[in-house]
Amino acid sequence: MRYRNVWKSGASTLAKIGQRDVLPGVKHPGFRAQAITQLSGKALLWADSIWSQNHPAIQSYSSFVDHFKEVFGQPSWDSSIAQAQDHGYVYYVPDPVNNWKTCKQTTNPVNNWKTCKKTTPLLLQIGVLHLEKISLLVLEESTADVILGRPWLEQHNPILSWKTGEVLKWGDTCFNDCFSEFPVPRSPSSNHLPVCATSIESPLEKRSVDIPTCYAPFSDVFCPKRASKLPPHRPWDCAIHLLLGESVPRGKIYPLSIPEEKAMEEYIEEALAQGYIHPSTSPAASSFFFVAKKDGGLQPCIDYRALNYITVKFRYPLPLVPVALEYLRGAMVFTKLDLRSVYYLIQLRDGDEWKTAFIMPTGHYEYLIMPYGLVNAPSVFQDFIHEVLREFLHKFVLVYIDNILIYSRSLAEHCHHVAEVLKRLREFQLFLKAEKCSFHQPSVQFLGYNIDSSGIQMDEGKVAAIKDWPTPTTVKELQRFLGFANFHRRFIQNYSSISNLLTSLLRNKPKSLSWTTSAEEAFNTLKEAFTTAPLLVHSDPNKPFIVEVDASTTGVGAVLSQQQGNPSRLHPCAFFSCKLNPAEVNYDIGNLEPLSVKLALEEWRHWLEGVRHPFLVLTDHKNLEYLRATKRLNP
Is the pTM of this model over 0.70? Predict the structure, then answer.
């Protein structure tokens, strides 16, 4: 936000600075700090200097103005609403209330200030996001539309950039109280203006979804009807290349229950109407069946395993999530977007439709769009969405298949970033699920993590799932638990050592699970470690790193930390652990400790190589202190 000097000279100066939020009928007690507008850091110093009513600066009007000019200097330009609009911040204020009495300047301002009228509660918008209900005192003459004093500053606690004139961050209460608290009227009135949100109905949940008004021009991007149309052919159409000499798949028809038959008829009717499928004469025939959803519904599925086995793999990589999250350092505001239909946004390459053919009790059909279940579908879509948003990747956008995260350092900057992404999605005829999008949040859940400006934590739902995980009774159940836990191992110190006993139970592919008391203890210890996992702070390359290593007879571990926060404290950025292989198990402690250093530096090479400050390696093995100073003896 850009703040101008709000005074010129003469009557309006004293009126603007002298008045404060007082109830009608109460005389002004003097020039208080609450009346000072947000000019600069000098404002509070100046206010404190004349706090006393006996200060010479308020004994006369001329001395007051002279003292004011002495502190602030002569302004080079004045505030204006047009200039404020140029920076995207507009104060909406209705006409003054009737019966306004002019404030007059006298040599005795304490006793002769006239009280002024107070408005009814108004909706005050600052920028495109911040909206609150507030009552204002009315001044007859003012070059500024609204003067916000110290009580308002204390309540909302904005962090400002005085160089760029932007609000970098609002107070914590603003995200809950000022961004979506008040409903937007259907039509403007003298006391209300439609400045908060655009209402879009979600066809899935039958509720209204609030989209910030600044994105109203992009309402078509959230339209479910537009998303149901057949997408155009693009250079990124899905091609299905088959291995030479392989026969096409031929599945079987599965019998369906009465509810499944009804769901099948609805699915086929809708897909035919949208143009997603059409009747087929293909020699290929994959099986069609249903699986149950968590909410009790039925999800149609096609068994493309045989087709995938003979398909040439497309190796476009999916992003490494931990590496991608490193770009979020310094971000203060987040918006999460979720694409509608995902794979259905891409057509199959002309001539490859017959390969996706499937059979069911009522017919033989093939897809025109990329269906779920194809082995190359994730890579094809990732390649496509990367091309769509390539200009923004790792600058203010992360994208993992259909999940798009936009991050920025300030609210004003964030609005521009989100608008750029929505504009690009519209150009490529991509659409969003409004009910799954969240805008302008101080924290966000993304790919199983809770992310905010401080760092990254495990999703509370994932932690609860691990905490309530029942004791495994079969090999498959143990594999499922370890697979789930392994995804979040970077949050757990010495994860490999804790889970070593559990992983040893799966050695040599046993047919049954030999669960022991020791295994139960290791299982409970691992669950407890997840429930107490710390926050991992965003690494800062401008600060020195500390690598702390340790080794045991079963594995090695390390912690990467930095001094952050106020007061500065050591916080973990990541944990690393590794199980020893059969050869390394025979190492003595003198070799295990250097091994832990080597593995840790390899794991975090991309963080530690080329940093501004030397990093420190901490170990409890005294002999490593002389590792670099050791001289080789001649035989």
Answer: no
AA identity, residue 368: L
71's CB contacts (< 8 A; 6+ apart) are: 42, 45, 46, 49
Burial class, 182, CB count within 10 angstroms (exposed 0-12 / middle 13-18 / buried 19+): middle
- 15 three-class SS: helix
For residue 286, give the DSSP letter: E
C-alpha of 486 from chain center: 23
For 527, phi then psi, to 5°, come to -65, -40
Other CB atoms within 10 Å distance of the CB of residue 305: 13
Say which amino acid occupies 210: D
Tokens linked to 451:
């992310």
Furthest C-alpha separation in the chain: 105
Mean pLDDT, residues 152-179 taken together? 69
DSSP labels, 541-559: TTS-EEEEEEE-SSEEEEE
Query: Distance between CA 82 and CA 155 in Å, rounded?
Result: 27
Could you say which DSSP state residue 195 is in? Answer: -
Calpha distance 228→274 (Å, rounded):
6
Q: At 132, which helix (H) or strand (E)?
A: strand 130-134
Which tokens belong to 542? Answer: 């401008």
Nearest to 131 by CA among 165, 157, 161, 156: 156
- Show the domains of the chain with their CATH numbers: 11-177 (no CATH), 258-453 (3.30.70.270), 457-531 (3.30.70.270), 536-626 (3.10.20.370)
Task: Enumerate residues 6+ apart whose C-beta is below 8 A from 118.
Answer: 23, 24, 97, 135, 136, 137, 138
Q: Convert the pLDDT of each residue in 491-526 to its tens digit.
A: 888 888 888 888 888 887 888 888 888 888 888 888
Q: Rounded to an integer, what distance in angstroms lies between the CA atom of residue 519 and that of residue 514?
A: 9
Angle at the Cα of 44 from the Cα atoms of 39 and 50, rounded to 5 degrees:
120
Report which of 134, 75, 141, 133 is spatially closest to residue 104, judged by C-alpha positions: 141
Confidence bin at 166 (pLDDT 50/70/90):
low
Region for residue 633 given its phi and psi (left: phi exceeds 0; alpha: psi -120 to 50; beta: otherwise)? beta
Which of 10-14, 296-300, 561-565, 569-573 is least confident?
10-14
User: What are the φ and ψ backbone dihedral angles of 34, each rounded to 5 degrees?
Assistant: -65, -20
Are residues 67 and 57 in contact, defined by beta-carbon separation less than 8 angstroms? yes
pLDDT per position as a tens digit, 191-248: 333 333 333 333 334 444 567 878 878 888 888 888 778 888 999 999 999 998 888 8
Other CB atoms within 10 A of residue 385 CB: 25
Reduce the secondary structure of 204-244 to three states and give it as a string: CCCEEEEEEHHHHHHHHHHCHHHHCCCCCCCCCCECCCECC
State the Cα–Cα distance between residues 191 and 122, nearest whole angstrom.
6
Helix (H) or strand (E) holding 86: helix 81-86
